[in-house]
Amino acid sequence: MLTQLGIFLRKLRLDHGEIMKEMAKKLDVSSSFLSAVENGKKKMPDSWYEIIVNLYSLDQEQQDKLKKSIEESQKSIEINLNDLNSKKRNLVFSFARELDNLNEEEVDKMNLFLKKDGE
């Protein structure tokens, strides 16, 4: 099943008249790896964002759509806690533990507090 990122990449390819093999070559990966990224079986390498922006000369709107599709397609995130003091670390862990317990209203309030679009 295609992820939001997969949909974005496929549309980008088609808009540029490319097949998967051509995009994979530009990204220096195999077609099967690119397919696995599109289908959510593999994580997109972090380096791809800048590469895709530059290869396809994405405007700001397209860059925003790419970022959002990456976020929506992620199954997990990694947070580096090395530079956080114990208070901030505890906040991160508390948030992660309680995330499943938040209702939609609480999520909306958190997004408003963090000034980030929820959906």
UniProtKB/TrEMBL annotation:
Residues 9-46 form the HTH cro/C1-type domain. GO terms for molecular function: DNA binding. InterPro entries: Cro/C1-type_HTH, Lambda_DNA-bd_dom_sf. CDD domains: HTH_XRE (cd00093). This is Helix-turn-helix domain-containing protein. It comes from Anaerococcus porci.
